[in-house]
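DOMAIN: structural biology
WANTED: fold as tokens
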Amino acid sequence: MLKIAIDRGGTFTDIYAVYKNRVIVKKILSESPFYEDSNTQAIKEVFDELGEEFDLSKIEWIRLGTTVGTNALLEGKGADVTFVVTKGFGDLLEIRDQRREDLFALNIKKPKPLYKKVIEIDERVMPGGRVEKELEKEIEFDENVAVLFLHSYEYPEHEKKIKAKSISRSHEVYPIINAVYRGDTTVIDAYLTPVIKEYVAKIKKNLGENIYFMKSDGGLCGADEFRGANSILSGPAGGVVALKTIYKDKALIGFDMGGTSTDVSRFDGEIELKYFDKIAGHYISYPMVDIHTVAAGGGSRLFYKDGMFLVGPESSGSNPGPLCYGRDGYLSITDANAVTGRIDVENFPKIFGKSGKEPLDIEASKREFEEIAKKVGKSIEEVAEAFLDVANENMANAIKEITVKKGFNPSEHVLCSFGGAGAQHAVGVARKLGIKEIFIHAQSGILSAYGIANADITKSETIVVEKEIEEVDFEKLFEGADERKVFLKYKNTNTAIEVEYKKDFLEEFKAKYKRMFGFLLDSEIIVESIKKVYVKKSESIKRARIKSAKMKPFKQKEIFLNGKWQKADVYKDIFAGNVIKGPALILQNTSTILLDEGSIAEINEYGDITIKLKDIKETALLKEAKLSLYANRLKFIATKMGDILKKTAMSANIKEREDFSCAIFDKEGNLITNAPHIPVHLGSMSAVVKSIIKKHEIKEATYISNAPYEGGSHLPDITVVTPYFKDGELIFWVASRGHHADIGGVVPGSMPPFSKTLQEEGAVIESFEIVEDGEFKEEKIRDILKSAGARKIEENISDIKAQIAANMAGIEELKRLDIKEMLWFFEEIKKISAGKVEKFFENLKEVSATEYLDNGAIIKFRAYRDEKIVFDFRGSSPELFGNQNLPFSVLRSAVMYSIRVMLNEDIPLNEGILENIEIKVDENSILNPSKEAAVVGGNVTTSQRIVDVIFKAFEVVAASQGCMNNVIFGNENFGYYETIGGGAGAGDGFDGAGGVHTHMTNTKITDVEVIERRYPVMIKEFSIRKNSGGDGKYRGGDGLKRVYKFLEDVEVNLLTERRVFAPYGLKGGSEGKKGENLLLRNGKIYNLTGKNSFKAQKGDELIIKTPGGGGYLTKNSK
């Protein structure tokens, strides 16, 4: 019987078929005017090759992987969806976690919701399945519906009462604790399932019933079980399954490089899954193969910008394609491969040019490279090779995401290359990672289809547990399952790790945790959930052998490799038992394999090629390529620091809200680069490092500080700083800053609205060595915290240790870089940034603006040219007898952020931005207060108004909400803090975004289901405050409304702005609405004003309405 596996991609459909001992491989276009369906056409071509009539009865099975669902999502071609949700949460999937994607964007772009209509249902369930508002009757809809009722993962009865023509219920799609993630996934399922079902029906009509589909998790399912949520990675999952057939005793990295992107994955005995991803801007939380995608493919465009060589993310596509396609396309990776001789033009099909019958046009590629070569003083080939090096670096960084960030060393893996462009870059990428062995499967051009042929039929079920291990009856939960997985985490953390349920599963969890984070926590272990998998194993597919014969090159050609032209042998037909030494090209039907001078390729009996790499002396990189490489490397390292901090911290502030930042500094303490975290932190941390340098005799230790007069922002923000020495010389610093939930002081949460002195706000930690000679000074930090009345000292200690772990991880990664080149980059990026700022302000004429805080304090601003560019805040109010004073370090941070936004250049936030800027400010003023001044409100309110006043003066954009809307509540048992987004200001050519954080902050808001499980509060409503944005030709963004009902007596503290003075409009645009803080008690509403501290009683409701953004231009202006 015939067995057929098909991978239908966006461009090509690949076929791997087995009949008796014969293997048939095909690659055809997915769309063609000559046939209706590529799957049916593929099978017809298989029968033609066998010399037989098309006969479905001769087929044992057909297995399909498809990108139909993914393409519908990316192209916006899904079905109409009605979103049915708990009353008060109709805007939840538009607000999501309130963060903006691009930290420095003024025109904040949010993904368009996939649903057409929202219906709110008056029902409510609380954690534990407690029904607050019963849904009495079933409700029927004659439409396609996605249902999200809060806490339905635990109590699904209300969702079951919703009936519809086509329905996706969140507890059935994927029962996890997170309303936003579960809701988005459910809407995606509803959006795609009708498209999938229509596609499946068409396939079944043409090809019969015996069809299986590849799911995102690498298993197969029957046609009736294939739907939207499990289809997203149906196509690429096959490639990961194929790694299973290749695996022997060494971990593998899958490297699938195509025309527009590269997918990388890892295999070490079992398919690694992930349970969260973001596709086309939409969250999906569902089991899927752990593939990381980077926008680097053969069609990725090449740019010379700001002294750097950049690759992507834009792609030239297949039409017009790269320049060498002869269709007036764009300079791309393929052009670089062509001009360096890595493509054998003579043997490339003549399908290019406007006639579609011409060869590749290398001269077009050369002309464009020549323009860049003239600018940098190098040859065309040197420039092209440098671009290829940057592309290889980008792909190597993608591999680090699935190895280094999980505690694995990429050099201990075999790189398995597949996809049309992978074999050309495999050697270069492997050398970046220290990998010594590359494997190229004989079917590498259609490896996903081969993997689909070898996949098992599976069905899985996930059950939320959230109990300590001793409380769980595993045998009962796993009854009948073939595979048993447990998701474990430490209590009060969020990072659940998947382990197989077996005798030593706890030890496996601890080993995985320690490998990822470098330490274990002294805390109870919680079973978050379990997954049971039912498996029907597939037979192994026999492989066809190739002939043995001596191979000879059919020609030689010149290739530009490692800085020089080299003669390379070119091979076409391959035979078993041969060894090929580089430099060489091996031409295959669907790809070209490039071997450099240190490569040796061996061909086995099946036609697989193993490449062993010897060390070679590599040519020094061009300056323009090095800049790009080090910018990416350092950003990756800072981001990894943040990942470790988030996953190992205990407090909700760090692990849930992500109120932290990580950065890298030169030996003088100048900021060099950062992860895209919180702007209010990033620009001010260098002041802490410089303060420590000035105060201490620096040694190999880790320092801690939160004092505002040492560069801190406010007391809850603790900064941990670590220097790195080599051979006794200080080389660089790393630092992490995290907002601690409570640091002592007069109120829980350490953010009193009416503090008058710094001591009222909590513990002041003047810098000292928190780790010295390898010893953590726990007793000293405990004493400091205790003396200030800190309420959650264990959590503080745990979070400080997490910050130390993040710093150490950063240093370990930085140590692997070339120190000399890294220090060169430190200086170069500052110089480039300073030059950009100087150019931006070269024609500056004096501008000025004034803003008023709600308490009447004045912020004055002028910008003008003197010897430097002057940002002059003199004349602002004197120091306040209150807490909205702004430490000078935070003022500096706001200035740095504002300039970076106005520059609109893709450079890291770094000290060079302020090199030619002089900030003038009065001593003992609101913007440069004395040592004893209260500052907790300045960091979270005044900082935003600094940005507003600068943008007002330069007429950049209308005012944002101008606030972070700080809400703190707690009692003797707990403390909780969050900030709430609002409206962004409109600007030239764009409306302001609604329901987002702007400017100096970008923290997440805790998901409603998570906050209700952890704290005695009910979120009654979380919605967009309609029509609160200012009117104009371009409208300001709307604010948010969040309603809390307290389930215990608590103390509440509010620190908010823009409750008196509205966010300004610009150039005739209207103001945004002011914010409001209200208390509902016993049916009566009270205005709480912008700052308040009060005792809330059980049953009280707190209503926060955040400001809208200002409008831009008069409504009818042209």
In short: The chain has 24 helices and 54 strands. Residues 179-207 form the longest helix (29 residues). The mean pLDDT is 92. The radius of gyration is 30 Å.
